[in-house]
From TrEMBL:
SUPFAM superfamilies xrefs: 2Fe-2S ferredoxin-like (SSF54292), CO dehydrogenase ISP C-domain like (SSF47741)
Designated name of the protein: Xanthine dehydrogenase YagT iron-sulfur-binding subunit
2Fe-2S ferredoxin-type domain: residues covered: 3-79
Keyword set includes 4Fe-4S: no
InterPro entries hit by this protein: 2Fe-2S-bd, 2Fe-2S-bd_dom_sf, 2Fe-2S_ferredoxin-like_sf, 2Fe-2S_ferredoxin-type, 2Fe2S_fd_BS, Aldehyde_Oxdr_Iron-Sulfur, Beta-grasp_dom_sf
Keywords: 2Fe-2S, Iron, Iron-sulfur, Metal-binding, Oxidoreductase
GO MF term list: 2 iron, 2 sulfur cluster binding; metal ion binding; oxidoreductase activity, acting on the aldehyde or oxo group of donors
Entry keyword 4Fe-4S: no
């Protein structure tokens, strides 16, 4: 059995026919070939699959694709400006070398953008707290916090 969905991903509408149990993560990666969103633990524990729905961060591995119908979904591919320029958080990640293997980077960036939007950048400890759902196994957390702090300062 399949259901027909219309998902608005990064400002583009996509028609999909998927099984009702398909997660947003699998719809993005396997059906729409938007592979920037990573599948890490597939259990909602690592944050590698963080995307935004209606401007709020969610874990795509714990969200059914059907739950996103009629809502605005933004993935890492949708952060760049219309001119192709990097989002300020993406640029700050490059400047601070806030990645090592890079696997967690898309989820970290998406969470960092939300952290700034939510106003949780008053201190490094506050950034760490609100970014705690995103794990980096390589240990780049200090650089990630520095990148989010700098991007937040630029946004002010």
């Amino acid at each position: 059995m399949t259901i027909n969905l219309r998902l608005d991903i990064n400002g583009t509408s996509h028609a999909l026919a998927v099984e009702p149990r398909v997660t947003l993560l699998d719809a993005l990666r396997e059906h729409l070939v938007l592979t920037g969103t990573k599948k890490g633990c597939d259990q909602g524990q690592c944050g590698a699959c963080t995307v935004h729905i209606d401007g709020k961060r969610v874990l795509a591995c714990l969200t059914l694709a059907a739950q996103a119908e009629g809502r605005q979904v933004t993935t890492i591919e949708g952060l760049a400006g219309a001119d192709g320029g990097l989002h300020p958080v993406q640029a700050a990640f490059l400047e601070h070398d806030a990645f090592q293997c890079g696997y967690c980077t898309p989820g970290q960036i998406m969470s960092g953008v939300a952290c700034i939007r939510e106003g949780h950048t008053g201190s490094d400890s506050e950034i760490r707290e609100y970014m705690s759902g995103n794990l980096c196994r390589c240990g780049a957390h200090n650089s990630i916090v520095a990148a989010v702090r700098e991007a937040a300062e630029m946004a002010r």
